[in-house]
Design goal:
Strand order of the largest sheet: 3-2-5-10-11-1-12
Largest sheet: 7 strands, parallel
Structural class: alpha/beta
CATH class: Alpha Beta
Distance between the termini: 7 Å
Order of helices and strands: EHEHEEHHEEEEEHEHEHE
Number of strands: 12
Number of helices: 7
């Protein structure tokens, strides 16, 4: 397990990392991954509360974070954090209502936000499935920008797909900007565009996503991945392959790829971050 913090200035984790030097941590199995991820994220949240008095956390969708969410919910209850001090955001969303079983928000509410008993005012929904996707993305970006007040995010949790996508930054897709312009998916959205709608290419239907720039504003970025089908994408992302969207995202202080052993591959590659075993 990662070491906890002793004081607000300390950063957790067995290996120090910078935005230029991500770390690749292999957990023995999904249970170990969830324990390590929860320990890291909760220590970072505690650090944010000590430094800033609040924490802005971006949650990932998909199945991998579920067990991590459950452990985080238990930790939040046990640690007695102020319920209005942690703000919860979603890195991306499908174009479905929050009540839909495919919704990332619904999954997070069921596994983390509901069990932790967080204040409804701290859950920032995309409001997907109603109106126009580009308008929805603009509203979310404006809401996040105003809430951050010039500061960056503190913790961003992300997944990785076998094609190397993260959030809804899909290879080959089209970004539909809030002003209606369209652009190919790439590592930079136009300045002042913290969120956008996405369609086409590898994106299955309309998606909403935070921009690479907004995700990279976070002090800490952690990717969670499990399964042998993710191994190639994990290594491309960790080694900075420019054709892999997950490689575009780096935290201002730490970037961690926390993956199960099968997703880490068989051995160190000889380049990029070495494999650290949790």
């Amino acid at each position: 397990m990662a070491a906890g913090e002793t004081g607000a200035a300390a950063e957790p984790g067995p290996v120090r990392a910078t935005s230029r030097t991500p770390r690749l941590v292999a957990a023995e199995n999904a249970e170990s991954l969830a324990e390590e991820a929860s320990s890291l994220v909760m220590a970072w949240i505690a650090s944010a509360l000590g430094r800033r008095g609040s924490a802005h956390v971006v949650l990932a969708g998909g199945g991998t974070p579920r067990a991590t969410h459950a452990l985080m919910a238990a930790a939040i209850r046990e640690m007695g954090f102020p319920k209005d001090a942690i703000h919860w955001w979603f890195g991306d969303e499908r174009w479905v209502a929050a009540s839909d079983e495919r919704s990332n928000e619904r999954m997070a509410r069921e596994t983390l936000l509901g069990p932790a008993g967080v204040d409804e005012s701290t859950i920032h929904s995309w409001g997907a499935g109603s109106g126009e996707p580009a308008d929805c993305a603009r509203s979310y970006g404006e809401l996040m920008t105003a809430a951050l007040g010039g500061q960056g995010l503190y913790v961003v949790m992300l997944g990785i797909g076998p094609d190397g996508h993260t959030a809804s930054l899909f290879p080959g897709s089209t970004v539909v900007l809030p002003d209606g312009r369209e652009a190919p998916m790439g590592p930079r959205f136009p300045a002042g565009c913290p969120a956008a709608a996405v369609r086409g290419g590898n994106a299955p239907g309309w998606r909403l996503t935070l921009s690479p720039g907004m995700l990279c504003s976070a002090r800490h970025v952690i990717f969670l991945a499990s399964g042998a089908d993710k191994a190639e994408a994990v290594h491309r992302a960790a080694n900075g392959d420019p054709a892999t969207p997950a490689a575009w995202i780096r935290g201002a202080t730490t970037t961690t790829f926390l993956v199960t052993r099968d997703a880490a591959g068989s051995a160190d590659t000889g380049y990029g971050p070495p494999i650290v075993h949790a």
